[in-house]
Amino acid sequence: MALCSQLQNLSSLISPHGITTTTTKAPTRRHVVVHAAASDTTTSLQASSYEEGKLVRPKWTGETPLSRMVRALISFKPLYSILKLGARQVFISTAEKNNIPWREMTKEILESQVYKELDSIQNQSLVYPDYYLNPFHAYDEGNLTWLAAAEAEAATKSMVRRAIPTASSVEEATQIMRGNWLNAIEQHHLQHSQTSMIGDILDIGCSVGVSSRFLADKFPTANVIGLDMSPYFSSCGPA
């Protein structure tokens, strides 16, 4: 498949409860090293650190006159369609200015063999909650579409880059964000478990498996299971 990770023995399946899952068997010896653009040396994800600052809510959110005006504007469908298209183009161009090849990554996936995976993954008897069928992130069909799945990894990279604006590159931003996330999981496990060995990890809402791959790299002896309701996302997962 187009999104190929270094994980081994990946298979996609349907659970008895009708939830689309992706199961990953991690290799027995793994160590992930991330190259930061600002340095010629390699740095382990485990060494990353980042002090989270105070989050500032945008002025157009919440119950303010501006937020109510924004909601009124986007409720008008013709105007919403125009705004959605413009926002989407800005998002893509901004990502590519940050050296994230959004269009190239998407094209590679859509021209791959991911379509063949859908029949073996999709559960036709699964009843989705109403919210999951609504437009989401500028996709009219929400997460139940090939385009949303094909763009998921590029969008994730862009989100990470915007979340850590002080980073010198996408790689450094990823190192900071994922490193802190993985270290928090490891510290929680060591604090509440009697053993340092992690046997199984369930990654709920894993999208196309980006976080699942990081988990498998960080905890090489664990069986990592990525679970997502969208069969399109699971089809585009790592192989």
Automatic annotation (TrEMBL):
InterPro entries: Methyltransf_Superfamily, SAM-dependent_MTases_sf
Classification via CDD domains: AdoMet_MTases (cd02440)
Top-level taxon of the source organism: Eukaryota
Designated name of the protein: Methyltransferase type 11 domain-containing protein
